[in-house]
Amino acid sequence: MNAIQSYNTGEWSPAPLCYEKVNGSCIKTTHVFGVQLVIYLFCAMGMLLVVLGNLLVVVSVFHFKILHTPTNFLLLSLALADLLLGLTVLPFSMVRSVESCWFFGDRFCRVHTLLDTVFCLVSILHLCFISIDRHYAICKPLQYPIKFTVNVACIYIAVGWSLPIAYTSVFIYTNAVDEGLSHLLKDLPCIGSCQLLFNKLWGWLNFPVFFLPCFLMITLYVKIFLVASRQAKQISNLEKMVSSSTNMRASRRERKAAKTLGIAVGIYLLCWLPFTIDSMVDSLINFSTPPLLFDIFIWFAYFNSACNPLIYVFSYSWFRKALKIVVTRQIFQSGSSTVNLFQE
Fold first, then answer.
1. What is the DSSP letter of 187?
2. Domain coordinates of the chain in residue numbers?
3. In sequence order, what DSSP letters do the residues of 193-250 get, joined into one string?
4. Hey, which residues does 25 pair with through a beta bridge?
5. Signal sequence: where (predicted)?
6. Distance (Å, rounded) from C-alpha 24 to C-alpha 306?
7. Residue 270: its H or E element
8. Residue 238 burial class via C-beta count within 10 angstroms: exposed 0-12, middle 13-18, buried 19 and up
9. Which of 31, 32, 43, 154 has the most CB atoms around its CB within 10 Å?
10. How far is CA 236 from CA 175, 224, 232, 254, in A?
């Protein structure tokens, strides 16, 4: 029987369990009420920021016709993934992190893991596609309107959702995977842990799935930065000779969009890198990462979903205008969908 020693009496007493009268139950990590309350409030504020921020992005891009561009449709799909993460995954992850137990059953554990992984992979694929979009817009501006249309963006979105769903479903809902990998763990997961048996192989497979798109994004943005810097010098020289034209303003918008999305990619890598590396290393050390450290890594990754709307607020004047119209409920007025958000 699991037990802990009382420092006041020197006697051993039973350790708190997730399920008191169930054999094989996980040991529950207890916190004082004040600490629990602070963690719950912190996680709840994070979830609220994720949900509201991405909801505003979804509503803005969907409502305003001027934002119906290939790039913005990819941003819309990315925001939808982050919104669904905040609504369907984070509430249950919050309870698991604070209570150190999974109280929602094995079946929902699989669903929760499926959604968690799918939304993560959807995000990284969409960021990769956005990098390709920006590469064409900056490096091949004459070919961009032909190469990257709304139809192409829709195909990218379909691929960006279908591949993660198919890839994740194979591991979570194929019994052969569990049966073939059960011998790899010295101890089977205790009841109340939501630890699936495929985690050892999962950590290694997710390594290339995460880093190959990241390597592609970094390569593209390095090229974008070099080309954009050269274009900025050329435009600066032209502006000294002629007055600023619409094409020049459009070119500056494209470069600013590339810079903003490059920042979003960098923050994504910063947030997800610790958790991804830990997932791979943890499979080598028989999942011995301290629960507190694991929770810090995973919530640091989760909060990345709240970053993109904040980046747009500080970077895009059109997004601030859209937010003002949405928040003040002017979107319910006739003709609001045709407002020119790019007008100075």
1. S
2. 1-30, 32-333
3. S---TTHHHHHHHHHHHHHHHHHHHHHHHHHHHHHHHHHHHHHHHHHHHS---HHHHH
4. 191
5. none
6. 37
7. helix 246-284
8. middle
9. 43
10. 62, 18, 6, 15
Per DSSP, the three-state class of 137 is: helix
CA angle 162, 136, 343 (to 5 degrees): 100
In the block, residue with structure tokens 């509430």: 91
Pairing between β-strand 3-5 and β-strand 12-14 as defined by DSSP bridges = antiparallel
For residues 310 and 25, what is the distance between their CA atoms, to the nearest angstrom?
A: 41
Burial code of 17-43, b = ≥16 C-beta within 10 A, e = fewer?
Answer: bbeeeeeebbbeeeeeeeeeeebeeeb
* pLDDT tens per residue across span 113-148: 889 989 988 988 998 898 888 888 888 888 888 888
Q: What is Dmax (Cα atoms) for the chain? A: 87
Quick: pLDDT tens for 1-32: 444 443 444 444 466 777 777 777 777 777 77
Residue 267's identity, in one-letter code, is I
Residue 337: both structure tokens together: 């969908």
The alpha carbon of residue 287 and the mean position of all alpha carbons in its chain are separated, in whole angstroms, by 23
Angle at 89 between CA 180 and CA 128, to 5 degrees: 80
pTM, full prediction: 0.83
The architecture of the domain spanning 32-333 is Up-down Bundle (1.20)
